[in-house]
Amino acid sequence: MVDLFIVLTASCIFLFLTALTDFQISDAEWEDMLEGFDERSYLSARRWKPGDDPYTLYAFNQRESERIPSDRALRDTRHYRCTTLHYDSELPSTSIIITFHNEARSTLLRTIKSVLNRTPVHLIYEIILVDDFSDDGELDCQLLTKLPKVKCFRNNKREGLIRSRVRGTDAARAKVLTFLDSHCEVNKDWLPPLLQRIKEDPSRVVSPVIDIINMDTFAYVAASADLRGGFDWSLHFKWEQLSPEQRARRTDPTQPIKTPIIAGGLFVIDRAWFNHLGKYDTAMDIWGGENFEISFRVWQCGGSLEILPCSRVGHVFRKKHPYVFPEGNANTYIKNTRRTAEVWMDDFRLFYYSARPAARGKSYGDIRSRVELRKKLNCKSFKWYLDNVYPELNHWCITSDKAQLGFLRSKTQLQQL
Q1: Is it the case that residue 83 has pLDDT exceeding 70?
Q2: Is domain 329-416 classified as CATH 2.60.40.10?
Q3: Dmax (CA) of the chain
Q4: For the segment 368-405, what is each residue's pLDDT rounded down to a tens digit?
Q5: pLDDT tens digits, 285-307
Q6: Which residues contact 381 (CB under 8 A, 6 or more apart)?
Q7: Which of the two residues, 62 and 332, has the higher pLDDT score?
């Protein structure tokens, strides 16, 4: 309770100070900057050429993406009751952080313009782009900073999503942090529901319902509002339907959905709470597994995770990564998830190793600082997490062989991992 009081006090002080220094922009200036942006010139580079495979560069249909306007209209995919809700008139503004590496200009621009067009001006403190050493040099950043509220930082080497996001948060000045991927489109009134939940309780970490932008046609498709994040013992993320009992308890379709884990690409968090919790594990590489680490840490260290049905953001889901993992995709994912298992899963990490035997013996770096962080924050055990947050993950039934289960849980086996 003392730690939470400190976080709340720091949040209030930070909000006051940023309010003093925040610059105001009029609606007319906003429109002038949007209209003055040379979109044609920006989109002219690296365009798809007839005869080329439109999937080669970005693992989605570049040709279709370039056919779609940067400010296309979207159908409001929320439940109709969402339109009847009211939010506080004085919500905190947010720093919106978008990291990218060799992103298609059409999707990156559409992400930014959807934010600018569908978000109340006063709620956007700044849009921070972090270019993770893209091949295009600094040109993307230089051009995009001509849009309202946009700032850009470029890494001088490939850092990956986790360290790039931390760089963005270190530069952020708003009370609240909003993380978006670089191939998204926010929908109508997406931000106020998220900020309202954070204002009411800064220990919440909230995510929108993630609609689907088809990677082939770029059609915007509504996702079910009866989903939450889940996973198996190999730490493979999956969307899962709410159980009949859970759906029966949801008498109001606008109510937040508690989720054991977030997908990780799109979420909002109080800045002081994010820093208090230890930001991200910056020893993780490139991409993958960071959503498990931050989800376990939030729940076990006194926070909560929610999906808000009245906030909708579309996302391009691809079947493969268009970029290179220096150590290989599988090895990077194993390193990152093994760090998560070793720090946060206690003896239950044995189930991870049983489900992902390739992780045994693989290097995962020094975790002492993260273990100390867990002690410092006085976080709960993974058994508490299983009992109170995700009892559906039947941790006793990884194997029906009791002898094997006993072997897996032996101290000898722990020492051999």
Answers
A1: yes
A2: no
A3: 72
A4: 999 999 999 999 999 999 999 999 997 544 443 443 44
A5: 887 889 999 999 999 999 999 99
A6: 300, 346
A7: 62
β-pair partners for 145: none
Strands (E) in 232-285, as ranges, are: 237-241, 257-258, 267-270
* pLDDT per position as a tens digit, 202-254: 999 999 999 999 999 999 999 999 999 999 999 999 999 999 999 999 899 99
Residue 326 to residue 285: CA distance in whole angstroms? 9
The 8-class DSSP code of residue 365 comes to -
Task: Collect contacts of 38-45 with beta carbons under 8 A, ≥24 apart.
Answer: 38/143, 38/146, 39/70, 39/109, 41/143, 42/105, 42/109, 42/143, 42/144, 43/70, 43/105, 43/106, 43/109, 45/105, 45/136, 45/139
Fold of the domain spanning 2-316:
Spore Coat Polysaccharide Biosynthesis Protein SpsA; Chain A (3.90.550)
Neighbour count for residue 248 (Cβ, 10 Å): 9
Strand 176-180 vs strand 267-270: parallel, antiparallel, or unpaired?
A: antiparallel
Stated pTM of the model? 0.90
Count other C-beta atoms under 10 Å from residue 34's C-beta: 16
Burial profile 218-236: b = 16 or more Cβ within 10 angstroms, e = fewer? bebeebebbbbbbbebbbe
